[in-house]
């Protein structure tokens, strides 16, 4: 069983929260978590992220029990591609939504084994015994420049185009979904977040916070959010944490929206 929490905040600058976050255990026993960061303007980004999350959850809520993590991952990929079709179609049919799209990072778990799927620059991190590993590779202009050694890691953190993504859900008729397998041991934490966290909170700060067991899982999510706000809060901020329990039986779950 996993302990699951999430927080989302509009930040200190934006007037609308275009992030959409969803974490729950499905009736079939799988754990599903999604963070989507909408783009395309005041109303359109909010609609794109909500449509993506609604489509994915509706497609997966009736998954049959007993599937492998790999099979669950394939179903998650299909659901994300369906969401791409839905958002792209709505953007094509309504001029006011013409440029809308959203990032998405999602994880689905069958027990301790799971699959992470993502499009864009929302991220997944795996925390284990004080060590934080980024599981996703940003689909962003800055990451392409970084990989091609055109800018340094330090320059990437302050680059004026660090919010420009090279791949998004809903902006094109076809899109590619990246998949990564992950297995959580007891005590491990999976962190999903929008770039409102990762652009303002360092991996070192994330690891230190996730290792603060005295805070509890909800306290750690709240602390990560506060760190992003303290760093400026220039963007919407969303954080989802999934912690693997020692006990394989019925475990406690915390929720915060």
From TrEMBL:
CDD domains the record matches: PP2Cc (cd00143)
Domain PPM-type phosphatase intervals: 3-244
Domain of life: Bacteria
Signal peptide start-end: none
InterPro entries: PP2C, PPM-type-like_dom_sf, PPM-type_phosphatase-like_dom
GO MF term list: protein serine/threonine phosphatase activity
PANTHER family: PROTEIN PHOSPHATASE (PTHR47992)
Protein name: PPM-type phosphatase domain-containing protein
Protein's organism: Paenibacillus barengoltzii G22
Lineage start: Bacteria, Bacillati, Bacillota, Bacilli, Bacillales
